[in-house]
Amino acid sequence: MLKIPFNIYEEMLEHLRQDYPNEGCGLLGGLAGTVTRHFPTTNVEPGDKYVRYLIDPKEQLAAEEALDEQDQELVAIYHSHTHTPAYPSPTDVRTAYYPDSYYVLVSLTDPANPVIRAYKINKPDPWGTTGEIKEEELVMGDF
C-alpha cells in the first residue's frame, strides 16, 4: 500500500499542471510505503517530439542523496499522462528500472479532474521488453 499525504498530492498536481501539456515527473521519498518527501523534477525530454519523461539525472542524484542523509528511501516515481489514462505505457514498462518503487501515474486528460493510480512494475526478461504490471492500493490522507 502506498500512502501519500494530501499536501504532497496537491504539490504533485501543481507541479504536473505547470508542465502541462508536456509530461511532468518527480520523486517521492519516505519509508515503508509512506511518503514524507516530494522532489519535483525536470523532464529533460518534454515537447511534441517525445511523449515521455526522463528525470534530470542530477536532480535524481540530489534527491537520492537527500533521502540517504535522512535514512529514507525512494518510495515512488511519478509522472503525468496528458492524453492517456493513468496506466503504464509500453515505454513506462521498458524504462521501469526500480522494481522496489511504486510508479505513480496521474492522468491529466481532464486537467480539472486528475486520475491518480499506483503500480508496481516487474520486468521478468532481461531486456525489459515485457513487464508484469500490478495496480497497488493508494491511500491519500493526513499521515
Explain what the structure shows.
- By secondary structure, the chain is α/β, with parallel strands linked by helices.
- The protein has a single domain (2-141), classed as 3-Layer(aba) Sandwich (Cytidine Deaminase, domain 2), CATH 3.40.140.10.
- It is 22% helix and 36% strand.
- It is built from three helices and eight strands; from the N terminus they run βαββαβαββββ.
- The chain has helices at 6-19, 57-69, 90-94; strands at residues 2-5, 25-31, 34-41, 73-81, 102-107, 115-122, 132-136, 138-141.
- It has a six-stranded mixed beta sheet with strand order 3-2-4-5-6-7. The protein has a two-stranded parallel sheet with strand order 1-8.
- A hairpin with a 7-residue loop joins strand 5 (102-107) and strand 6.
- The longest helix has 14 residues, at 6-19.
- It is globular and about 35 Å long.
- The two termini are 13 Å apart.
- The model has no long low-confidence stretch (mean pLDDT 92).
Identify low-pLDDT runs. Answer: none
Helix count, DSSP H or I runs of 4 or more residues? 3
Share of helix, binned: 10-25%
Overall pLDDT metric? 92
* Helix-strand string: EHEEHEHEEEE
CATH topology name = Cytidine Deaminase, domain 2
Q: Give the percentage of residues in beta strands.
A: 35-45%
Per CATH, the class reads Alpha Beta
Characterize the main sheet. Answer: 6 strands, mixed
**Span between termini:** 13 Å
CATH superfamily: Cytidine Deaminase, domain 2
| Number of distinct beta strands | 8
